[in-house]
Each structure stands twice: as C-alpha cells, then as structure tokens.
C-alpha cells in the first residue's frame, strides 16, 4: 500500500510504454526524483551530473542493454606487461629472519604476579567453569567462545563438552515475523495537527515510504501552533538536512513536544546538533 491505498492495480502496467509518453522535460524531472536502487535518496541530492547531449533517436531499453553487453564482450582485456609463468619467481624472494636468542627468551619468560595467598589458593583450586565465569565477569571475551560467555552472563551453567578449546556450533536461527506496515495516513494526521486535535497526542510516521518533502513541510509548519502533540516519531522516513532544518525551526517555537525520534534518516551531524539545541531552547 502507498499512503493507505492499494497499488496492486498498477502491477501489469508497461513501464517502457509509460516512459515513451513523457516529454524530455518530464523525464528530466523524473530522473531527479526517482532512483530504482534507493528510493529514499533522490539522485538530485546525490549526484548533480546531467547529460546534455542531443538524443540520437527514441529510447529502446532492450537494444541499449544488448549494445552494452556486446561492447563488454568485444572489448579485449588489457595485456599483461609480463605474462604469468607458473613456477617463475620474480624479484627478491622474502626469507623470514632467524629468531634471535633475546626473542626466544621473551617467549619462554613467564610473568610472575603476586596475588596474595588467599587469591592464589582460590585460583589454584578453581574449576574450569569457575575460571570461565570469572573471565566473563572481567570482560575477557577472547578467552572463551560465545556459548561460554552468554552462559556465564545468564548464570545457566557451562555447556557440556565445551572447554577452553571448545568450538561454538551454529544454532538454528529464530524466525521473527516482519513488522506490520504502518497504516497511518499522512494527509489525515497533517490535518489533525493543523486543527490542533486534542486526541492526537502521539504521531507515528515510522517506516512510511515515499513521503514527499511538501508533506514534511506542511507538518512542520503546523507544529508551532499545536498544543496537544507530545510524541513525534519519524524513524526511517527519508528525512534530509533540508527538511530536518524545517523541523528544527518548528521545534524552537513548540513547547508541548516531549519526545522526538528521527533515527535512521539522512541527517548530518551538524543538523543533529541543531535539532538538540532547538529542543533545549523552549525548555530554559
């Protein structure tokens, strides 16, 4: 669904036929707003390059792809400066240096740490499971595998058959159902914010795709005069610096919002700082 409407009726449409009916100006506008690889980041905000060459004819996508594949197959590989010959050594062969006596002494040397009689006796008589639990408490993650570490944290007892040299076996992954789609209607909630609806206290737009900048601007323009909205969730909705700046300006004039969530968006660190400062402005 898109904005609460079923778009299944458009599944059988021929995209190439629709594109052929567009004018060059309309195709240029579409290319700046639609990206099949990332629908959350308009190409106009990622790459400013535009081809200014005159068209050589009508666009035929199938022939274009065939031409690209043909060129790739017919283009010869770059010749090697020196062809590879199996068994031939080129340049100087690396020979590892011999170990010195000093390096050998450092390997064999043991560091003596005096922990006191009480701790020495406790560690000497401790079982392997107790040593593993102690390593987990001290944060020595490299001394144990994942099963041992999590068993120690949860106090479940060490897994049977796993020692210091134990290998963590793969466990069956748990399947979790996907989150249901967000069915909030942006147009309806914008209207409620503008009318200062007392029933709208928590506004959740999380994970709604393809929200236009115009709708964000309408929502943010209505925030200064709203006196009932307390929570605004805008997670993973494609917010950019331009729209986030509008939000920061609105927050400076709003004194009822208590919770703002804008994680997983395209907001730069400087705008994050600006948002935090705007939240603090009405609190002091």
UniProtKB/TrEMBL annotation:
Gene3D superfamilies linked to this entry: Ribonuclease Inhibitor (3.80.10.10)
MF-aspect GO terms: tropomyosin binding
Pfam families associated with the record: Tropomodulin
Cellular compartments annotated: Cytoplasm, Cytoskeleton
Region of interest (Disordered), ranges: 35-56
Domain of life assignment: Eukaryota
GO cellular component term of the entry, any: cytoskeleton
Major location category of this protein: cytoplasm
Record's keyword terms, sorted: Cytoplasm, Cytoskeleton
One annotated GO biological process: pointed-end actin filament capping
Name listed for the protein in its UniProt record: Tropomodulin
Species of the source: Homalodisca liturata
